[in-house]
């Protein structure tokens, strides 16, 4: 019990210290002191705040479809008390949002709604969720400090203070902000969480801030930019009424008025709808008001305010002020509910009953492509078109990134069912293949048309994935194909039917895996299980639009997809097998040669592993001449493309594979056939003296490579059916 009390005491102390450290309550004069030090940080609008949040979390660089983009770290941050799925890919989309925000800053405010549109489950709302989580976390940091305010009216000796006669407490205090509850008669928050900055009249605000900027850090000076928020934003109707009533009562003495301001730290919250709000397509108003001056507790209100007809503003759009709002499934809402946004975007405010409210918001809308296609045909579209920035959010076209999404779901399933290694790579490949469109040779220069026509769906998927993981036996890359990398990704980008609009969604694949997880007939989800699930999913072509597209040169060709996914999976499995049998030293030739090429380009050859590797691939040539010749070829190829060395890479990998396997193939085949017998209890059929090697192989595959007996047997049987592994192919 004593320990429990100690814990409670520690919690209380931490909470008290945190309250004091963060200065959660201030007087208006104390707020002005902080504003003097940070005139930009405490006067920025919601757009600037969102941009600063992105920069606060930092950035990296990342390739997407062959182009280098900023990768904002907020989208890979694990937030406390959050179960958000990982944000994978979509660098180009996020950079377009970032570009729009930059433009908004230059224009003085967010004068358009950022409309994210794309197929179902492409990550539209997830992008906004991360932005909301980002500003929520940022608002808890010193750099992201935000303030709002309450009106506070004190009480002394049973009398309402602050008006008329001067009493001891009113003359002693320069603010009522820090009074206790017992000393307070009435407190009223600002419904729209306006910044205390708006208490300074617009005509004085800019000149006041410019004066403060003369004596602050260079960072504050450089970032400060005049905005509509500074020039035009004013108090909400209720706060303006109270301010004006006190102005009359105090005969214009502003210092006396501002004694009634209690500045409070504002923490944004998605859960509690403070500055981060998602509005679903419900048929209810986004903002309403009700008269509060008729409430029964109005007797507590100071007499100078009792003649006012004050209203309380409520609703999602009101709660979102000073942050982000997402209109989810925007185009499924009745159009009448959206029309108020036209003036809200233009004027930076809305009318609620008799109240005019200034909005400081970044607005997002999300919608599916089918709804957008219909909306474009309606008479309501033209007015919205000019007030929206349309950004498509396609399905991912990079296998390695798509596979990460599948891997996260498979990790959960693996708690109670074994998952065959590399399955996520195959499912990622399958998903990407369903999304690819055939390049139209007519859209390319004449000298590239023949090359373009020869690019297979698998090769296009490998190109889009920046050659991360692939089977060298299944591609044929030359200089011309590599020249098409950027052209391919741009071909359909600006069209209505862009690449990534159709195909399997991550959720389709996830549902397939979970269906297999509940299948009690097997203890492992392997490649055959996955392909059987895909076969079931694609039986009804009316369920998926991409299934209704006519196959052309293997694009939209399900039979090709099945064959390609199976072949590649078995190639990956074969490499594991040959590493387990020490045919390949330490790792597969793919990864060995990739590391060797990296050493060559960096002109470092002091690693013994790569020196030994080099001996096995230079065919007796002198090491230095061989190394220099290969390096020269690679450097020449890099002048044309960042991946220009890929044809050389593929050639070297294929050569190493062939060289290593040719000398041991008969023995390897015997071990694999014996391993099959072991896995089905056929030990008696194995010749004495050879069983130990097969047992060692099986144990290595299970313990080191994480195969289970079920998927190991299934994969071995499929591998040995391949032409290159049949008995007569030695």
Task: Please give a structural write-up.
The chain is α/β, with parallel strands linked by helices and 730 residues long. Among the domains are: 397-568, no CATH class; 584-663, no CATH class; 665-725, no CATH class. Helices cover 47% and strands 12% of the residues. The N and C termini lie far apart (76 Å). The relative contact order is 0.08.
Protein traits:
single chain, 32 helices, 730 residues, 12% strand, alpha/beta
Portion of residues in helices?
40-55%
In terms of DSSP E residues, the strand content is: 5-15%
Structural class from helices and strands? alpha/beta
Number of helices: 32
Largest sheet: 5 strands, antiparallel
Cα-to-Cα separation, first versus last residue = 76 Å
What is the count of β-strands? Answer: 18
**What form results from the Cα inertia axes?**
elongated
- On the 0 to 100 scale, the average pLDDT is 84
Radius of gyration: 33 Å
Unreliable sequence segments: none
In short:
This protein has 730 residues and is an alpha/beta fold. The protein has 32 helices and 18 strands.
